[in-house]
Protein 1
Amino acid sequence: MKKLLLTGFEPFLDNPINPTMAIVKALDQTELNGYQIIGGILPVDFSKTGEEMLKLIEAHDPDAVISLGLAAGRTQLTPERIAINCNDGPVDNTGHKPDGEKIIADGPDGYFSTLPIKDIVSACRENGLPAKISNTAGAYLCNHVMYQALHFFAQNNLDRPSGFIHLPASHELALEKSQASWASSDLKEGVITAITCLP
Ligand code: PCA
């Protein structure tokens, strides 16, 4: 059976919960659309996250990678179109604040997602879940892992769907900090819908 690496992130900044963790834990070791799902939770740490991502890819040799992250404030499920070769943004969980450095010194400026992002948006919408393509994943950890995975597959000439989906806050998170939010069950359903779009 094919393998899907599904990653989420630990909580970060002023988000005491990261809804991607529960989704990854719930789907870990389950089977969907002909894929065995392997879950992994990544740290919000610029010095470790890329390495952890590559370790997971090397250990499991997945046929596809979907990484999930929280985009607090967004109202829709948003598959990302592009990852850029840049670390920037607020402090990570170790207190490190990047300043626009390249992720890979001699890497290309960017990579397009190789996930079927248009199909994911259409399938979510058909399923009653608001979704749209995002044209920027920012320059924080989510962009970082998306870039690292795409760079690995490009460097190794491996044609495997890989990319990133940002999720809105869960109601649980919105109880802590007022913001647009979705039911956790809908967030999970959106991720399941995305997985069913994989070739
Ligand atoms: N979201 C952050 C990092 C971890 C997460 O879940 C981001 O959008 O970069």
Protein 2
Amino acid sequence: MKKVITYGTFDLLHVGHINLLRRARELGDYLVVALSSDEFNAIKNKKAYYPYEDRKIILEAIKYVDEVIPEYTWEQKIDDVKNHNIDVFVMGDDWKGKFDFLKDYCEVVYLSRTEGISTTKIKCDLKAKDSE
Ligand code: C2G
């Protein structure tokens, strides 16, 4: 079984996330998503709208996702790849090059981001609508 892993906050789920998860899953037979904890989001200077537990339930409902584990630190990726017998590490190409150190442990694939959509854009658009 070819196992794939990807990491992220996945807040306010949108087609960019789904496009990433679908293509990541297509690279193997089993997709693990390492979901940023609320505490790790604070380290990433992100404030998710949904708390970790809700984001986890939402991700687990997606047919491309086989398992969700928590992401607590920047440094856990090598252990995750080893402990979960991961064959392929996948991230959107806004991260291109940032995780090439994992090439010693698994295949590293950066997939193109979906243009025109982001959680930040959703929040801005909703705020703008509110003030219309
Ligand atoms: N993504 C995408 N297209 C978009 C928006 C996001 O392909 N329009 C991808 C990102 O490139 C990332 C994944 O969806 O691979 C999750 O995005 P975020 O939740 O924003 O994840 P991020 O905060 O980048 O966390 O250790 C890695 C970090 O946890 C990554």
